[in-house]
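FAQ

Q: What does a record look like?
A: Structure on top, sequence underneath. For example:
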């Protein structure tokens, strides 16, 4: 957000407040952030946005004051907002009956302000790979445009508004990631982001426990298509029939992957690859070679072209943490730290990467894949069969669901009930020169295993 009479940044963490911030106190399941409004002001916040009860407590010690210009702007985004200076006389107190709705309205207003100055917004969703695609696209666009993107995993109804509000005023391209666990959530995010370009990376068996079928998952992801303005562009996989029913004649549709508008051509020596984007042939030398990320690259190239950027040459991408990070350990052991999350699609892709890149023994530490519904045991067995077929020689499962993998894996296998047990067991199983993949759903906490291996090196 811009410097000047208004706030310079928005935060929902009172512990992270810096001078000039607007602190938004959101009610939570265990803690109500509004209770920390007074402390945020004492720490130098420009102002606080909280529920009326919290605003009254903070403002009670100060005389009434008229709405400031910044307060009037906020009032216009939602219901009636009251503003009074805090006792310190250093901050503004804003009251709203729904602080989250007010935060989202602020983000929508800022997105429109950016757009009025020429910025374009790309929104990316998918069952897997959306964060990596976001990272790749941001790197492509940054070659020519002042680019901002969702930091970390700010991709929810809370995180996405914060990502939008963090974009500097001179932003030319804003790349946003949209996450969901149920129907209606993508639509809510699209209403805030108002994207010029929408990307659906793929459709897969994620959140089946809540949505019930792949068709329902596709419909939830396709809320991105439904929410876009006529004349916008949507980018989808060429080989995904589940999205066919959701296509719109009033949108420009670009497909990527085999048989699509943007396809992978020949792979040359020294890491160079050819990409055919319509009539245009593009040569890139990316810093990654995993097949799933090359597919993500095609989606990113398609989006970059829509924004007028035709990439070329070397492309270095700093992927977000815990997503396929490679760490060299002692005794020639390589750790592939991919424990941010997992589903059947991403598990298979990670195993393929392990198989293609490991110079020595292939070791897989695989945790539970959560929210897969009644077919969860079959999904775990299928992953184990894929691991065996791809040459994994040692399997360590973590959690009760992952233990089901052992029945479908012919090689050496061990089971641990939790991450701490696995972290103690794994070092006794490893040999010099092993390549170790660590992957599972975030709720399993496999980062403990990766941290233990790195700490021992």
């Amino acid at each position: 957000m811009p410097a000047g009479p208004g706030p310079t940044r928005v935060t929902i963490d009172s512990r992270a407040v810096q001078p000039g911030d607007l602190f938004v106190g959101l009610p939570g399941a265990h803690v109500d952030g509004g209770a920390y409004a007074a402390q945020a002001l004492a720490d130098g916040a420009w102002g606080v946005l909280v529920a009326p009860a919290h605003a009254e407590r903070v403002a009670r010690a100060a005389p009434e004051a008229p709405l400031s210009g910044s307060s009037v702007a906020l009032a216009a985004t939602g219901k009636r907002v009251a503003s009074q200076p805090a006792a310190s006389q250093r901050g503004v107190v804003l009251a709203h009956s729904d602080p989250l709705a007010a935060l989202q309205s602020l983000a929508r207003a800022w997105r429109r302000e950016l757009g009025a100055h020429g910025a374009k917004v790309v929104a990316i969703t998918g069952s897997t790979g959306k964060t990596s695609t976001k990272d790749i696209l941001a790197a492509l666009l940054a070659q020519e445009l002042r680019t901002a993107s969702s930091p970390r995993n700010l991709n929810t109804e809370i995180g996405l508004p914060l990502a939008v509000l963090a974009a500097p005023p001179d932003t030319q391209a804003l790349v946003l990631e949209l996450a969901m666990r149920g129907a209606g959530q993508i639509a809510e995010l699209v209403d805030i982001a108002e994207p010029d370009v929408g990307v659906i990376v793929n459709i897969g068996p994620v959140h089946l426990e809540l949505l019930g079928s792949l068709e329902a998952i596709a419909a939830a992801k396709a809320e991105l298509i439904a929410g876009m303005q006529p004349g916008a562009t949507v980018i989808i996989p060429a080989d995904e029939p589940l999205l066919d029913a959701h296509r719109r004649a009033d949108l420009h549709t670009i497909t990527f992957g085999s048989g699509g508008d943007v396809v992978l051509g020949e792979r040359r020596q020294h890491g160079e690859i050819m990409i055919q984007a319509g009539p245009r042939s593009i040569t890139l030398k990316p810093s990654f070679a995993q097949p799933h990320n090359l597919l993500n690259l095609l989606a990113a190239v398609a989006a970059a072209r829509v924004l007028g950027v035709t990439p070329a040459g070397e492309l270095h991408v700093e992927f977000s943490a815990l997503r396929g990070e490679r760490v060299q350990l002692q005794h020639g052991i390589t750790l592939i730290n991919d424990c941010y999350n997992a589903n059947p699609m991403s598990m298979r892709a990670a195993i393929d990467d392990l198989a293609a890149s490991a110079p020595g023994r292939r070791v897989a530490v695989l945790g539970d894949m959560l929210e897969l519904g009644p077919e969860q045991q079959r999904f775990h067995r299928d992953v184990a069969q894929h691991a065996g077929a791809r040459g994994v020689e040692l399997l360590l499962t973590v959690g009760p669901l992952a233990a089901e993998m052992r029945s479908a894996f012919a090689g050496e296998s061990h089971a641990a009930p939790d991450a701490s047990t696995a972290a103690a067991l794994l070092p006794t199983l490893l040999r010099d020169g092993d390549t170790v993949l660590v992957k599972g759903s975030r709720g399993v906490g496999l980062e403990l295993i990766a941290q233990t291996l790195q700490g021992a090196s």
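Q: Is there anything notable about this one?
A: The first strand starts at residue 9 and ends at 11.
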